[in-house]
Amino acid sequence: MSPRTRMLLEGPIVPTLLRLGWPNTLVMLAQASVGLIETWWVAHLGTDALAGMALVFPGYMMMQMLSAGAVGGGIASAIARALGGGRREDADALVLHALIINGLLGLVFSALFLVWGGALYALLGGEGGSLQAAIAYSHVVFAGAIVTWIGNALASVLRGTGNMLLPAVAVIVGVALLVPLSPLLIFGWGPIPALGVAGGGWAVLVGGTVTMAILAWAVLSGRSIARLRPARLRAALFGDILRVGAVASVSTLQTTLVIVLTTGIVGRAGGPDAVAGYGTGARLEYLLIPLVFGLGAPLVALVGTNIGAGQRERALRIALTGSALSFAVCEVIGILAAIWPATWLTLFGTEPALIESGSAYLRLVGPAYGFFGMGLALYFASQGAGRLLWPLLAGMLRLAVAALGGLLALHLTGSVGWVFGAVALAMLIYGAMLWWMVAAGVWYRGTATH
């Protein structure tokens, strides 16, 4: 057994979580900053460009969450359980299976958004200049979707072994390249033409390619406990990844649908300016996802490895401890955003409608961020356990309360503010329900004890 695997099985919980979590939090914040950097520069192109990016952003974040958090979590969970159970050959074979799964999904994602992306953005309220900007940006970032999917497969392999530092380094290098490249391609300089909002998409694609190349080098050069080797393809290993990844993908779609449907409701009620405001405010909510993923990826590895080794009580303690840490961090962020919403919003624009819509969202939804973070942490822990039924049910309830409740509130009051109230209530129910069920031991019901 490698020293890293032994640390996952025997190390003190909080210090081990923090030790594994800090590089992962750093990498996910760096990855999330890609969207913030892009938004800041694109905001200089006007409200239409900003609204166009707000229309594309849910789909782009959905791709990131699916490839890194959902299917990526399935990859990390399968490798962690294999290593925890002493199945080193299976762990190696899972690397090849992971790359095949994510490669195919990347191609499917490109086809879907290149063909139907424009129609989707129109349904969400895009029109005129905002719709044109959305299509221009979308065609670039989704044409290179396979780069994101393969890169996140490689990162998940490393995280499943407990190695959080190498993925962090790879993503930070890609983001560092994005910082000068984004304004260069958006506004042009010297012989380089100004590409407008599409230039931001090209900058994201170049940065992602560099990140993928570094991660490929790390796995292929033997710096991973689980290594890419020639292996016979086995349905059982595909199933080991997809059993977790497919169900987790449904949970990810639920999270994205909340944002997409709320965007549509706000767009119909207030037009492109209100969409820009809500989209800018909701970026802070999306920022919580990679922030929680900083603890979530270690939770997948820790819970999966301990369950693979039969240490169920320790796995449950790890999950509840991680969810408490996540609640505290996200609640602080939410309360600060609710008190000073303009501090965040004015980073991206000063139009009155943008500030009004975004402030209404942050004041109502910000105080519920802690419950959202707690639920997300338990979702990642459930990936490690290979038990995703309850996160799926909690996510369905959240979607129903946010979407149907939001529509009902708009119909009865005509106020977008009540729509945001439904979103906040949905977050609270999601986190509280999932904590209660995991603490009650739903992971282990109907299974033999060790």
UniProtKB/TrEMBL annotation:
Keyword annotations: Cell membrane, Membrane, Transmembrane, Transmembrane helix, Transport
Subcellular location per UniProt equals:
Cell inner membrane
Q: How does it sit in the membrane?
A: Multi-pass membrane protein
Segments traversing the membrane? 21-43, 63-83, 95-124, 136-158, 165-189, 201-220, 241-266, 286-307, 319-340, 360-381, 388-412, 418-444
What is the protein's major site of localization? membrane
Output this protein's name. MATE family efflux transporter
Look up and give the organism this protein is from.
Plastoroseomonas hellenica
